[in-house]
Design brief:
The protein is mainly β. It contains 1 helix and 9 strands.
Length: 158
C-alpha cells in the first residue's frame, strides 16, 4: 500500500490510497532549427538553438484506489448522519464534486501529499470500476474503484 493523497475543497475532504504518485515538471522550451542554404551546406548542419523562458508546469499523476473500507480519510462536513464513513460510491461522487467546483465559485483545490499542502486544479480524473475479493478468505465481494487523477499545481489566473 502506498501513501494517502487528500483532496479538499469546500465541505469535502477526500482521501485516496495511492499505488503510485508521479511528480512531473515540464519546461516548455522554444527550439529554433536554423536553415542551411545550398551555398553553405559544406560547413555542416547548424546546431539547434533553444530559448528557455522557464515556463515550468508542475503536475502530479496519481494512481490509486477507493473502497468502502478505506474511508477513514474522507468526509463531507455537511453530512448530517453524524458519521463521516462513506461508501466507495460516495467517495467517487465527492471526488467528481470537488473536480467540478464543490458548489463554490472558483478557487483552487488543496491536495495534501507527503505532509505538504499543494494548491491547484484537477485536470482529469478517471474511475475504473473493478471487482476485488477482500479479504481473500472468506471471499467477500466489494466495490472498488481504481482512480487516476492529473493534478496541476498553480493558482487562478482570473
Amino acid at each position: 500500500m502506498g501513501s494517502n493523497v487528500k483532496f479538499t475543497k469546500g465541505d469535502y475532504s477526500i482521501g485516496v490510497e495511492t499505488n503510485r504518485v508521479d511528480d512531473e515538471y515540464k519546461n516548455k522550451l522554444i527550439t529554433l532549427t536554423l536553415a542551411t542554404s545550398t551555398s553553405n551546406q559544406s560547413s555542416g548542419k547548424k546546431e539547434t538553438k533553444i530559448v528557455d523562458l522557464l515556463r515550468i508546469t508542475n503536475q502530479y499523476s496519481i494512481k490509486g484506489y477507493i473502497t468502502s473500507v478505506s474511508t477513514a480519510n474522507s468526509s463531507k462536513k455537511h453530512d448530517t448522519g453524524g458519521s463521516t464513513a462513506m461508501t466507495a460510491k460516495e467517495i467517487k461522487d465527492a471526488l467528481k464534486t470537488i473536480a467540478t467546483g464543490a458548489g463554490e465559485d472558483g478557487g483552487v483545490i488543496t491536495m495534501t501529499y507527503e505532509s505538504d499542502s499543494i494548491e491547484g486544479y484537477i485536470e482529469s480524473i478517471t474511475f475504473s470500476d473493478v471487482a476485488k475479493d477482500y479479504p481473500s478468505s472468506p471471499s467477500v465481494e466489494m466495490v472498488k474503484y481504481e482512480v487516476q487523477i492529473i493534478f496541476v499545481k498553480g493558482e487562478s489566473a482570473i
